[in-house]
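Title: Comparing notes on inverse folding

I've been comparing how different people in this forum approach sequence design from structure. To keep things fair, I'm posting one structure and asking everyone to reply with a full sequence. Here's the target:
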């Protein structure tokens, strides 16, 4: 069965209430087949609730939608056969070995023995799992556990993979390797729907949706969003004392936000009169510090959209 509009995911006015609390507030969006779609937002924004509804694990309060061509209200069991789902705390069996976990989930998904053997050999030949196939999972670092969890969740060749905060708490090198595996899945035609609060990961996505307090505030190509939805200008100051420098700048009229990024400050100002505001900023700086214009990143955009939604 295929989706009427050819989309991997299509939802309209999707809503979920928990008593008086609205966790997901009438959101509508589509995800193309074969794309990597990133769902961004802070903790508690509604990301996990949305993904659980799409996976058939939580019934929406209202709204409609299809996943892999099946209705999320009436065909949740059919959806489960066509997707892979990796939650924030995927249930690996800690006292089993790497290979035993793969074997267990192959049985859960009713994968034919020959196909499972072929898949397992691919994983062992092409990743670190081959050298640790007999290691007990509880002894592995978190990044390796997440990689194993991914392979456990996709052994049955799902059309769509739902990944809920898959790299939370994982070191940067393991995160990079994990995303290489995600890219390979997308290149093979699989749709990847991933929730994250790491904005550098969002740059890896074909399109992103930004959700805040249950409301979808923006959706599109990350580059297009930074160009079209960011209404200000961003200046950068390299400084060894970012917090002290920020205090010098915050009171200048027209400065909307001052955010430390390591040993730098990103200063967001109103687009109107931006050059004049830059002159005032540089007049406040001392010790050879100079503010220079830079392109906004996704964090700049996300902060701006949150402030816009709260105003």
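Reply #1:
Here's my take.
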């Amino acid at each position: 069965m295929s989706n009427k509009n050819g989309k991997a995911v299509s939802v309209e006015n999707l809503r979920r209430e928990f008593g008086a609390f609205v966790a997901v507030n009438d959101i509508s969006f589509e995800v193309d087949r074969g794309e990597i779609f990133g769902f961004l937002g802070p903790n508690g924004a509604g990301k996990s609730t949305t993904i659980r509804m799409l996976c058939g694990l939580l019934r929406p309060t209202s709204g409609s939608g299809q996943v892999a061509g099946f209705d999320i209200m009436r065909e949740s069991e059919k959806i489960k056969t066509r997707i892979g789902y990796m939650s924030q705390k995927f249930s690996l069996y800690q006292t089993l070995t790497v290979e035993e976990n793969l074997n267990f989930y192959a049985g859960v998904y009713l994968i034919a023995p020959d196909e499972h053997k072929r898949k397992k050999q691919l994983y062992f030949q092409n990743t670190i799992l081959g050298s640790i196939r007999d290691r007990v999972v509880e002894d592995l670092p978190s990044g390796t556990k997440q990689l194993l969890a991914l392979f456990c969740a996709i052994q049955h060749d799902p059309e769509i993979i739902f990944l809920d905060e898959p790299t939370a708490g994982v070191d940067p090198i393991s995160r990079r390797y994990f995303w290489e595996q995600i890219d390979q899945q997308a290149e093979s035609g699989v749709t990847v729907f991933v929730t994250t609060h790491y904005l550098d990961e969002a740059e890896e996505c074909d399109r992103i949706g930004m959700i805040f307090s249950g409301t979808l505030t923006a959706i599109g190509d990350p580059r297009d969003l930074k160009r079209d939805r960011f209404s200000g200008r961003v200046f950068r100051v390299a400084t060894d004392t970012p917090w002290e420098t920020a205090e010098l700048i915050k009171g200048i009229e027209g400065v909307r936000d001052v955010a430390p990024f390591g040993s730098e400050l990103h200063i967001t100002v109103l687009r109107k009169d931006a050059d004049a505001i830059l002159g005032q900023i540089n007049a406040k700086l001392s010790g050879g510090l100079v503010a220079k214009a830079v392109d906004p990143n996704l964090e700049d955009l996300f902060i701006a959209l949150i402030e816009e939604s709260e105003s």
